[in-house]
């Protein structure tokens, strides 16, 4: 077996470790939160009632997260959905001293470099928002409908590897969820197992 094949199998094994069930389950009301973005602005989930909201847990140094950003895939989705009125928050819950922690200026530099286009990047160094949603991995996606109900949580797609080439032909759960829900149709899959690096919470 080649080194690359071994690495891919190991990545899949690590990413598919059984995780405990989320207390914040699809079909329930999404917990309200307050957070500060990388420009110092305050946001509350309740401010966006009447709109679809995406929460995307992010970590610049995570290989799984980098797959989506270095390929341009997640930036394209951010631009597509925010253009349709969706509110998209990238949430960074890495604690100071932990891998993935960033200052506001560092996050803004990264967003510009990647041509990323979330509505805002919420800095959550205390892990308050992350623990409220029980975010497990980077990335970990949550989609909230205009009534404030959680309609999807889990992986961005069905290819739990850090390899960009695996984006080809991947089933994108986020796109499926928003396409269906915004058309008034049932969400095809409401919950999947997230994959990626563990969220680096404060100990």
Q: How much helical structure, as a percent, in the residues?
A: 25-40%
Strand content: 15-25%
Rg: 16 Å
Report the CATH topology name: Glutaredoxin
The total count of helices amounts to 6
Overall 3D form:
globular
The largest sheet, given as strand count, sense and whether it forms a barrel, is: 7 strands, mixed
pLDDT averaged over residues:
91
Which ranges are low-confidence, i.e. pLDDT below 50, for 5 or more consecutive residues? 9-21
CATH structural architecture: 3-Layer(aba) Sandwich
- How do the SSEs run, as a string of H and E? HEEEHHEHEHEEEHE
What's the number of domains?
1
Give structural notes.
- The protein has helices at about 5-15, 65-70, 75-80, 105-115, 130-135, 175-180, and strands at about 35, 40-45, 55, 85-90, 120-125, 135-140, 140-145, 150-155, 195-200.
- With about 200 residues, the protein is of the alpha+beta class.
- The protein has one domain (about 5-200): Glutaredoxin (3-Layer(aba) Sandwich).
- It has a seven-stranded mixed beta sheet, covered by helices on one side. A two-stranded antiparallel ribbon has the order 6-9.
- The longest helix has 13 residues, at about 5-15.
- The N and C termini lie far apart (about 40 Å).
- Residues about 10-20 have low confidence and may be disordered.
